[in-house]
Design the sequence.
């Protein structure tokens, strides 16, 4: 009937990685953790008090916020709990950007950012990343010139896994005149030897927000739970004004608290992912792929060998019940983004790729 807004009718929605119900499909396309969550999370679920289901949950997730604050050396008023990191993205747009005002991204990046901008009615200022997928040196100047009020920067970068240092992010925050949201959905997979920690920037800059997710490092993608960190003045309107009422349910709060209380077990799964990331990257290189690296996320961006089509390889792998991601967009058309699986899953991927490439 055409009742939707004209801007919504004209826009293109977010396209997630393909989800197939069959358990015999190997999914290496959605950046899920291949290992289960902490046994403590499963125990908390099994011991759920049924009375919690008939009552509204704590509206601001106070217990979780206290745990997260303690984990990061912050105060609870510097933490907001959200229904998946994507809710935080929508909230910061609503809170800090008037409809019609621009927000900024570097390209390529997380494809949901411009979708949320379209929904809000905001133009998107796009700046190309460097060849290694790092932010360009003049990023802040170009965003300031365009009047950008909010800049999204995913770090480690998606889809390459490139890691920008805290020092470089601090320089960007200092030069940028709007709110800088650093999307750290994949930060749990960063090599511990790098001692990467962006949280101290929150005490140095009043315009920095951090997005954290339990979907990846904590193996809780199905729960949809994330949180934001920032200076109290930035968090306050998110927490008390633009957050949906009871935005995180009682079950997800319970499981998220258990996950943070048993972080060491999540770190063990991240260590396994890092080990497989290195092994898989080396094996792909031996097959002729140009693997972007070093990746500090739970995926690899691998450019197909000469004479091979990345899009065709993706389709042929899917026909053999193994899913990887292909993006039909500039700089990515010749590449596959491959989530890190278990040893057996990665071995199957390498086996199939070897067969497919041999046919050529």
Sequence:
């Amino acid at each position: 009937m055409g009742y939707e807004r004209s801007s919504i009718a004209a826009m293109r929605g977010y396209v997630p990685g393909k989800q197939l119900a069959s358990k015999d499909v190997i999914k290496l396309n959605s950046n899920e953790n291949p290992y289960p969550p902490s046994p403590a999370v499963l125990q908390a679920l099994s011991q759920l008090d049924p009375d919690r289901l008939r009552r509204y949950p704590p509206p601001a997730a106070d217990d979780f916020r206290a745990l997260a604050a303690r984990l990061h050396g912050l105060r609870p008023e510097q933490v907001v709990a959200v229904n998946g990191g994507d809710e935080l993205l929508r909230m910061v747009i609503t809170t800090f950007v008037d409809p019609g005002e621009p927000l900024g991204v570097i390209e390529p990046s997380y494809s949901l950012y411009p979708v949320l901008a379209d929904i809000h009615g905001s133009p998107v200022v796009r700046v190309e990343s460097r060849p290694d997928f790092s932010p360009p040196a003049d990023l802040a100047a170009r965003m300031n010139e365009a009047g950008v009020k909010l800049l999204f920067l995913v770090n480690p970068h998606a889809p390459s896994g490139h890691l920008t240092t805290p020092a470089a992010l601090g320089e960007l925050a200092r030069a940028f005149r709007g709110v800088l949201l650093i999307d750290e959905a994949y930060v749990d997979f960063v090599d511990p030897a790098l001692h990467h920690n962006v949280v101290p920037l929150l005490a140095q800059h009043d315009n920095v927000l951090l997005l954290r997710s339990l979907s990846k490092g904590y193996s809780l993608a199905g729960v949809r739970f994330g949180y934001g960190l920032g200076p109290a003045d930035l968090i306050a309107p998110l927490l008390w004004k633009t957050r949906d009422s009871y935005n995180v349910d009682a079950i997800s709060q319970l499981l998220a608290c258990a996950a943070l209380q048993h972080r060491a077990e999540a770190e063990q799964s991240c260590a396994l992912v890092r080990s497989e990331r290195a092994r898989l990257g080396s094996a792909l290189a031996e097959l002729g792929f140009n693997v972007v690296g070093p990746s500090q996320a739970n995926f690899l961006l691998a450019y197909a060998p000469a004479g091979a089509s990345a899009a065709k390889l993706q389709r042929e792998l899917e026909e053999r019940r193994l899913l990887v991601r292909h993006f039909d967009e500039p700089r990515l058309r010749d590449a596959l983004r491959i989530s890190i699986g278990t040893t057996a899953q990665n071995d199957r991927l390498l086996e199939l790729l070897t067969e497919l490439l041999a046919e050529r």
